[in-house]
Amino acid sequence: MPLTTVTLQHAAHLAALLVASQLLAPAAWAGQLSGTARLPQPLALPAAAVMEVVLIDVAIADAPARVLDRTRIQPLNQGPLGQSPLGRLPASWRGELPNAGGSTLWQVDLAADGSYQLRQTWLNRPAPNTFDDIGRWRLEPSSQRLVLRGGREAPVFLQPLEGGAVLRKLDLEGKPIRSEHNDRLTRLAAAEPISPRLFLAGLFRLLPQGPAMQLCVTGQRLPVALEGDYKRLLQAYRNVVAAGGQGHPLLVSLEGLISQHPATQPGQGSRRTLVVEAFRRAQPGQGCPPLQMASTPVATTPVAASPM
C-alpha cells in the first residue's frame, strides 16, 4: 500500500474518531457530519491518492468500537489536503458572460463527488434558449484549473480565484480571455442546484429499493421516478429479461429531467431523481464507455451517520 494512502487514511480516521466520540457520547445521534482532514504540512498528492473516512462509535467504555459508516474518496489529487481552491462543496456559481450576439447567463454547480451541472441561458434568443450539461470535474494539479467534461464535444475551462469565491471563464484552450467584458462567475451564498433537462444514456435496472439508472457521463446512480415515460422504459427492460437478460443492467437512451423528488421510502425526505420524459432506445448487452475523467472531489465530504 502506498505510504500516501496510509497517511491520508490515518488522518481521516483520527478526525472521524474525534467527532464520533464528542457527538455520540452524550446520547444517540443521527444525521450528517462534515469536516476537514488536514496534514501538519501541505502535501502534493499523487494521482492515485486515496482518503477513507470512517465514523466510529467509542461512546461505551470497555466495549469494542463500532463502525457506523464510512466513505472513500479516490482519487484525491486536487492539491494540499483540505486546501481546495474551490472552497467547500457543494456550491453554485452564476454570472452573465458575453457571446457573439449578446450575453449568456451561466450557472455551474459542483458536488464533492466530482460531478457538475452546467446551465447556459442565451438571453438574446427566444425560448427554447437554455442548454444543460452534466459530467465530471477535476482540478489540474499544476495549474489548479477547473476542467468540466460532460456531454459537449470540448471541455470547459475555469480558473478558481479568491478561495473559490469566483470562477474565471477561460478560452477553449484553457487560457485567459483577453477582453474588457466580464469573464467571471460569482459564488452564491448557498448552493442552488439546477434541475437539468437533457439527453442521457445509462444502465437501468430494478433494485430492491426501486428502479435506478447509473448515468454514463457521471457514473452516478439515481432513482427513477414512476412517472412520465417510465412505463415504456420498464417494458423494454422486461422484454430483455424475458429474452434471458435477467440480473444484468440494460443500457438505455432517453430524454430526462433530474430534480428533487420525495424518496420512495418513508422518512427519507427528498432525493435527486431521474424523470423519464421520453424513452428512446435500449441496447442489450452493451455498457457505458469508460469515464473520460476521474473525479476529483474535495476533502470536505459529508459522512452520513446511521440511526442507532
Index terms:
308 residues; mainly beta; Lipocalin; OB fold (Dihydrolipoamide Acetyltransferase, E2P); 5-stranded antiparallel beta sheet; disordered N terminus
Anisotropy-based shape: globular
Gyration radius (Cα, Å) is 21 Å
For this structure, what is the CATH class of the domain at 91-187?
Answer: Mainly Beta
| Number of H- or I-type helical stretches | 2
Count of extended strands:
17
Task: Characterise the protein shown here.
This protein is mainly beta. Among the domains are: 91-187, Beta Barrel (Lipocalin), CATH 2.40.128; 197-283, NlpE, C-terminal domain (OB fold (Dihydrolipoamide Acetyltransferase, E2P), Beta Barrel). Helices cover 12% and strands 40% of the residues. The protein is built from two helices and 17 strands. It has helices at residues 3-24, 230-245; strands spanning 31-33, 51-57, 66-73, 91-99, 102-110, 115-122, 130-139, 146-150, 156-161, 166-169, 184-187, 197-207, 210-215, 221-223, 250-262, 270-283, 303-305. The strands form four sheets. Strands 4-5-6-7-8-9-10-11 form an eight-stranded antiparallel barrel. Strands 14-13-12-15-16 form a five-stranded antiparallel sheet. Strands 1-17 form a two-stranded antiparallel ribbon. The protein is globular, with a radius of gyration of 21 Å. Mean pLDDT is 79; it is low at 1-30, 40-44, 77-82 and 293-308.
